[in-house]
Structures are given as C-alpha cells and as structure tokens.
Amino acid sequence: MKSGNPEFQLWRKAIALGFIGLLPFTGYAQDSSESDENEDNEIATLNPFEVTTSGDSRYFATNSIAGTRVDYRIQDIPISIEVITSEFIEDTGSVDLRESLRYSAGIVLQSQNDALSQPFSDTGGVHNPEGVTNNKTNTSIKIRGFVTDNVLRSGYRRQHATDAINIDRIEVVRGPNALLYGIGNFGGIVNYLAKRPLPEQRTELGFTVGSDEFYRFTVDNTGPMGDHFAYRITGALESTNHWTEIKDQQHWFISPVLEWRPFEKTRIIADFEFGAQEETGVSFQSVRAPTLGNFDVTQQDRLEVFGLLEFDGKDPRTFRWSGPDTFLNTDAMNMNLELQQELLPNLHLLAGYNYSQNKFESRDVFGSLNQNVGPTNLRGSYLSKRVVTGTEDPNPVQVDNAIFQYQWQDREEENKRDQVRVELNYRLNLFRGSDWLGSQNNFMLGFSWEELETETFARGTDSSGTDPIRDGWNWKSPTDASYIRFGTQGDGVADEPLTDRFRNITVASNTAWYGVYSGAWLNDRVHAIVGYRNDTASTSVDQVGFRPGEGTFNSSADGFEKGSWQFGLSVEPLKGVTLFGLTSEGLQPNFGGNIDGNGQPLDATTAESEELGIKLSLFENKLTLSGSVFKIEREGIPFSYWWAPAPARGAFDPNADIVYRMDDFNPLTKPDNVYLQAGLDEFIAAQNSGAVFEQNGLTYLNASTSQGAAYLNAVFDSLNAAYALPPGERPADAWPGWLYNGFDDPLVNTAAENWSVGEFFQSISDKSEGYEIQLMFAPMANWQNIITFSHVEREIVSPGNFVTHPFNEGNVDLWPMWRFPNGNWGLTGFAPEDVYLDPSDSGTWTGIGYGRGESLDDTPPYAISGWTSYDFIDGSLKGLRLGLGFNWEDKREFASEFTSAGQKKENPTENKIQAFTPERFQLNGMLRYEWLLRDRYNMAVQLNVDNILDDKDQYGLLYAPGRSWRFNLSTSF
User: Fold this and answer.
1) Model's pTM, two decimal places?
2) Which of 78, 529, 753, 791 could form a disulfide with 770 if both were Cys (CB 3.0 to 4.6 A apart)?
C-alpha cells in the first residue's frame, strides 16, 4: 500500500511531468532578433547544470557539479571531491561501477566486519563471511568507514549497479553532504554521470575475452538526428565464471538516450536503462563449524566466531558446497526525463522525473551444523576451530555426532522508486569591472521528492513437519563433500516442501526543500558555499505472515521533519594554493519505523562533519593535490541488543507475583552444576514454603516471596563471584542453565518476557576521523600519475541506553536477562553496580564492556592506491601505452568481540576477542596499442592483468582471487 493519499501522489507526478512538458514554450517566445554572436554565447552558457570538460586532460578534471549541483571549478569548491574520468575507467579495464572505484583509497569494496550493521542478510547468510558489501544490488560500499547502500546517477538515487559502458565520469564527494543529495550519505556519495549524445556521428565496438571464461561485447553509437535531435545508444553483453567453482553470471545492458533542443534555450533529455543479470551458485562456499554442542540453528549470530568447515580433497579457497541450485536473477530498468531551460538571462531551470524498478528472484540455503539431531545415518565428525580464541593455539577441536541441518529459501523482491527534482538557479555578477570588488554569486532553490515501494514475498522449507526425526528440516552429512542439491537431501530422501512464509510491503517517502548559495569574491580568491535543507519523511510497513511466528502487522511513521546545514569556505592566498574548511550535516530518517523499548519511534540518525583541507594546482595543472583532515560524528544509529528491556511488549504484569519456570534451573535435576548447587539450601527452603510448586508436570518458582528470591539471589551471587575472579582462575564454563522458559505459559510472569529480541532498538553513536590525500602528477601530457591515500579511525562513542523497566515497589524483578551474570550478554561478567548506576533501574545502563572506544569495523586504518600510465608518442613504439597500478591496505579487524545481535562472542580464555587480516598488496598492469586502419578505423588492443603477483592468500575468512587477465579489441569510426 502507498503511504498518504494515492490520488495526491499521482497528482504530484502529473504536475511535475506537465511542468516539464509545458515549460519549453517559454523558450519559444524569446527574441529571435539577437545577433549570432549573442546566440553563440547564450548557447555556450545555456546550462549551468552540465559540467565543463574543455579543460580536462585524460585523468585530470577541472570542474564538477557534485559539490554545488552546478558547474564549478574543483579547485575552488570547499569540499573534498575526486573525479574518475572515462579515460581512467578505460585504462584500468573496469567494466562496472565498483571496479571503477578500485584505486580510490578510503573506499572499501569488500568488507567482513561492519560496525553496528546487521550483516549476513544476503545470499549465503552467516556462512558467507563478506559483510554489507555482499548486498545483491552491488551498490553497497564503505566511505570513510560508513556504509552507503546507494549510488547516484546524475544526482538521482540508484540502488542497482550499472555497466561501465554507460559511465562518462564518476564524482566522489566525501563527508555527510545531505544538502544536495538527501538522506543516508554519511561517509560520502558516489555520483556517476551517464554518457550523453555527441553532435557528430561516432560508433565504437569492443570485444573482450579473459580468464575464467570471460566474454564481453560492447557497443557505443551516437550522433545527430536532424537539426534538433541527437541520440546515443550504449550496450553490453557479458558472460563470465567466478574464480571459485560453479558460480557464474551473464548479463545484458542497453541504454538509449535522446536529446531534443526544440528551441535555442531549451534542452530535453530522455534517458533509459534496461538490463538483466542471471547468477548461479551464489550461496556460501562452506559453512561455519561450531565447537559447541546443541547449537540452535536459528541463532546465526553465534556462528560469527567460528571458522569454516573443510573437506578432505577439496580446496577451501575455491570449493562451493552450496551447489549449483542457488541463484540470483535481476531485472532492472531506469527512466529519466529532464528539462533544462533558460527562463530569463542568468535564470535557469532544471526539472526532472526519474523512475527506476528492479526485481530480484533468489534461492538460498539457510542452516548450520548441529549435534545429536536428525537422521543418525547422516551424522558424522568434523574438525573445527574458532576464528578467534584469545590465544595463539590453532589446534582444531573434533566435534562428533554432527549433521548439517538446513532449509531452502526462495525470495522475490521488487523495488519501485519515483523521484522528482526541480531546481531554479540564478547567477548574479556584481562590479564586473573591478578585480577586488567584483563578485560572482549563484543562488539555487531546489525541491525533491522521492518514494520507494518495496514488496517482498518469501517461501521456504516448512519446518512444521510431523516426522520426529526429520522435524521439518533437510539434512546432510558433514563428511559428504557432494554438492547440496535442491529437491534431495543427503540420503536421497526428497526435500521437505516449500510453503509461503510472508509478504511485506514497505513504502518510504521523502520530501525536501533546499537553498544553496555559492559565490566568489576578491578577485576569485575567496569562495563560499552556504546551504540549508529541510526533509520530511514518512514510512509504512505492512506484513502478512503465512506461518506462526512470521507475524502479521502494519505500522507507520509520518511527518518526521529535520533540517540540515552546510557551510564551506575556501581561500586562495597564493595562485594555485587553496585552503578550505567545511562543516556539514547528514541524516537518515527512520524509514524502517524502528521503535525503542517504550514503543516510541526513534529519531533520525544524524551526522555532523568538520573538515579542513588544502588543494594545489601548480605548473599549469601538471601537479594537483587535494588533502584534508576530517571528523564525522554520528548519533541515533538503531541497534538492537536481543536481551535489552522492552516494556512496550507489555507481557509482564507488575501487579502480579513474579513467577519463573525451573525447566533448566532446578538444582535437584542438575546435581553437577556448581552454580545451582550454591542455592540448593535456599531452593529446598522455597520448596518447603510453597514458593516452589508443581503444576501440570512443571516446576515453578515464585520470586515475589522471600524464599524464592533467596534462591535466585544465591545462584546469581555465585555466578557474579565466578566472573569476579581474574582471568585464568575463572571457571571455563560459568553457566547455570537457561532461566527464561515458558513465555507462552500463563503461569509465568517475569520482566524477562519484555525482551527486545531484535524488535526494539537502542540509539548508538560513533565517529570516524582521519585524513585523505589525492595526488595527480603529469610532468608530460603523455605521462599520468595518480596516488590516493587514506587514514581512517572508527570508534564507538556510546553503545546506547536502555529504557527504564517499570516495577511496583516491593515487587522488583532483579533477575531478567539484562541482569543475568553471563559473560556474553546481560551483565557480561561485570558487577551489577558497575553496569547500572542504580542496579534496580535498567535505564541507568552504562554499557560498560560493550564497545565504547572500540572500532568494531574492518575499514583499514591506512590504505594507498596508485596508477601510472605512459604513452609513446613518436618513434617505432608510437601508439603504445603502458599502465601499472597498485593497492596496499593495512591490517583489518575482521572479527570483533560482539555479534551482530549485540552478544559477546564465545571466548573461554577470557581474553579480548579481536582478529586482524594481514596487510595486503596487489599489483595490476595494462598494455594498450592504438593504430589507424584504412585512414578511417581507430583500432586498439588492450591487455589488463590484475593481481600480477598471483596472490591467493587468506585474509580473514576471504581469499584473494589470484591472477586474472582480460584482452580487449576495439574499433571506433
């Protein structure tokens, strides 16, 4: 369902499109008696929304529209901006957007550990160690340590990858610049500009072959169509295997663009993209191998600490146990209609509408290794070791009587995004005749509206089976290295049936008004950008669950409103030397409708950034540099500790007695558990007093009585004493049992029933700070050099706050999950008076031991990338170009001490859990030769070799891909 009035939504779109359709006639009434000279000048300055490229030189770009939304010299913009040109994309052999960003230090394209994010949500789940960058859209990256899950195409939000055949240039703007580009861009934005029609006829064809059976054909055709029309059609057809076995992908892509100039000062662009991609073998390579017994298959976050199962005779680097039946199919389209119009001298209008749609169909495997369950004929033994143990001991542990317990999951997702943008821009130049009094002033007023509707339908293995052995699951032996196949279990028995799980429709919209001033004074030595943006957002969620536990609900959050500012100033004290400072804000509305423990919607996630930098442009642009130091502070990040209090659940009655069920907490049935035995006398006394009672074959304890409270206090005291011991003296397994059973039992009444369990959230804060440098050096026109450097430090500032759980005086539950003395959650081994300023008030939680000051993120602290190319312009080697590139990154924290559900990882050594990858270096090369054939055809052959040193080492739980190559033959005429 749509949020708001559907008729009003359609009315707004109709008005926007009608505005685009009618405004060209304002150009028809313009005075046609102007001189040819004036006409030429007006045509040249028609569009401030288009970037000037006349001063560009191969890898070097002079201007950008990313910082101000209008054409502006990069040297003067008080923002850190990096431009990746089409020549650079071509030389590096990049075929998509992600590959084009490989040499931009500070951008992480593959992560394993993402602070405060919920990873493992895409294909492969927790068994795929890649983090959020595994997103099926191929647009999730990390900039300055923050995740961004979308890119921009000519300023419009995209959430699907694109083929490089359609990219003219890429502009990377760092920092939370919400002013022009809206929500969710905390580390920065990546905005790519699509290729536009050219005034002359031109065709380029390319064919590429490469390692892993890579085949690719591209076409780029452009030219005029009469006096007022021009067109461009780009397309690609690609097929390739992955460097691991089984996995492969094929895709096609086509992008026609039409440009119409019906009048002298009018430009209308219709830009389309269509494409489809099919991938098979997309799920995990192997599964996590826990050392724990009786592992709950649904608690996937607990698996994050374990390594991957290895099979005899199989290469763990390339083997893909999940088999060839998993897949991800994608269909995508994008339509953009845009009007650019000069209304009055120096007053320009841009009005655009963008519609995008993508559909995903996928099949995946969900499950884990377990013990003592399932068919006995499929059980076996395996060797396992933790990712991190706190020691240097790499010796594995043998796990017996184990089995792989799994389900199939089919999912269909469709995203529809509407975007409208209207901008008025006015340029005012004052005192033109004076060098020092003259000023150039640019005023922009903008409006944007966007709405995203996501519909998801899920089916999966029905785990409500009646067979007590198979229990509604599928099973396979951990010693059987044959592929997991859809339809057949490990012993040849047919799979459990797939049934409908849920259908979810989420609609999120955002409306914004913004104003931007950019200006230059004092003989073009001082430049400023000042702007304000006001966002109003709403969201609605409707879910229908087809199974018990999936849930049927609807919720909405309307009318959220937030403003954000940006101010930047640059000063050029010496010619070619610019100093700049910038303060900016960013925000991410609570589109998911996340609520806190009291049931109140969370505020938006906000970020503030401060940045100081220098830009150099010396020796006629032969040496350019941009460097800056930055600090970004982010607040209001939603994160859920599964064990945190959530009184909004309303399951606990503070007026009734506190009653626990003793299924796993009874000292009489667990005589070997020292912690329960510490309260044996109190338990017997409670039994004698009636505080412990039996009903329906179950044992209950009334903790509102002094005798019942005494037993729980004795057990908790014994646990607290154990955790108070120094490391090395503490028992290896300080675990009394699970206290929190029977939440669906009407006799049970505990505060623990009001637990978050991933449905209620806390607001976390963090920060990122560091410095970055982009250097370009071209001592000769035929020798180009680029080096980028990044230093980023991530830190959790606050792990959040719990809400206060209400109790009646004299009837306080002191034993819920958030006060349990466990080493992995609750008190996490600390004393209650240390964890809570007031031990009886959960709202005084200090978060001690829960990440404050930690990184919990795998952004490399230091990273350097570089590329050099040299053209032979005369002699026998004329036409030859050589290129060489490298990437180096520091060690990365691929494992931290918390799981994605807010639980400390298992660690019997009591040492801090933290694991790092080794440093990583990669060397890439290029060789290109160009010649003219028959005085008409510009021919080129190009060889790109990535990972020349053939690195195949393991980094965390991910492997380097090894050497690969691509050979391209192209012609243009």
Assistant:
1) 0.89
2) 791
